Amino acid sequence: MAYVTIRDVAQRAGISVSTVSRALNGRGRISPETKKSVERAVEELNYIPDSRAQAMRSSKTKTVGLLVPDIRNGYFADLAYAIQDTLFKAGYCTFIGTSSESVSLQDSFITSILSQHIDGAIIVPQGEYSDALHLLNTRKLPVVFVDRTAQGVEGVPLVDSDPMPGIREALNDIKDHGFAKVGYVSGPILDSPSLQGREYAFRDLAARIFGEEHVFVESTSFNQASCASVLKRMRQSGVDALIFGYSPDAIRAISLLTYAGEQVGKDVSIVSFDDLEIFRLISPQISVISQQVQEIGRRGAELFLDMVDGKRQSQSQRVETIYIPRASVGQAR
């Protein structure tokens, strides 16, 4: 049979459905013989209790909606894994969706999970107010934002990274290697408060460490051509040391530089946000500003669990970034 029901268990055990229900839920007076009959029938039929029926009897379903922009992105894959793993250890099932950096897809997912009897949601929002985010917030369900916030949505705690410590250490390392100029490629910042925050931190720190006249900043869109044009302008300005605030841009830049015959770590020095596996596998390995994604995911999930249990007020948290130097930062020529 495709699905085993509680009626099947009752029939196998030769007792009523209500008696099976009491035995499974530990309610009422059940004889040891009857309990053993139910357990034997459950084992023989491989019966799994219906979570929907349990939800009707309880205020909690042990299910959580999790939305990330792109599960193919190594950073968000690691984030989703850390959140799901923490929730699973607490007995929760996670419904995972991707928004593809689209507000409409984000809102479709939120509308869908609201039609389920979920306990709440953990979301990487698209950086702006939307009707679905407002609706989710008004349901008074526990909601946590991770990695970035949504402008205009109040009362939702955020767990993200503080870019200042990692950027400061990266800039000092670049200067210690003899570079007089530094460039920053901030990525598609228009709809991303987190990318905007990284750029502001870089501008402030780099101006103090290198002087404003030696600092170059440009943004990109989501395509290779945009990254190529930015990279070309940086190189024409005499910038040989670059920090990328958006890791997909760093991956594109490495490909473009290799195709042009320039060697990372010798002709151009590179630092990127996010300690992706690819940055540890290629040669030379890429210096990174790690957001400690596992820690962000773990804290976001634990904050959500505390909110579900009503243990504490919802409070935003920041995880300090750390700089990991590798061979992609070489000596200035």
Characterise the protein shown here.
The structure is a single chain. With 333 residues, the chain is α/β, with parallel strands linked by helices. The chain is built from 13 helices and 12 strands. The strands form 2 sheets. The chain has a 6-stranded parallel β-sheet, sandwiched between helices. Helix 11 (247-259) links the parallel strand 8 and strand 9. Helix 8 packs parallel to helix 9 (193-210) and helix 10 packs across helix 11. The termini are far apart.
Question: What does this entry show, briefly?
Answer:
With 333 residues, this protein is of the alpha/beta class. It contains 13 helices and 12 strands. It has helices at residues 6-13, 17-25, 32-45, 51-57, 74-89, 103-114, 131-138, 163-176, 193-210, 224-236, 247-259, 277-281, 293-309; strands at residues 63-68, 93-98, 120-123, 143-146, 158-162, 182-185, 215-218, 241-244, 269-273, 287-290, 317-320, 322-324.
Secondary-structure topology with pairs:
Elements: H1 6-13, H2 17-25, H3 32-45, H4 51-57, E1 63-68, H5 74-89, E2 93-98, H6 103-114, E3 120-123, H7 131-138, E4 143-146, E5 158-162, H8 163-176, E6 182-185, H9 193-210, E7 215-218, H10 224-236, E8 241-244, H11 247-259, E9 269-273, H12 277-281, E10 287-290, H13 293-309, E11 317-320, E12 322-324
Parallel strand pairs: 1-2, 1-3, 3-4, 4-5, 5-11, 6-7, 6-8, 8-9, 9-10
Antiparallel strand pairs: 10-12
Helix pairs in contact: 1-2, 1-3, 5-13, 6-7, 8-9, 10-11
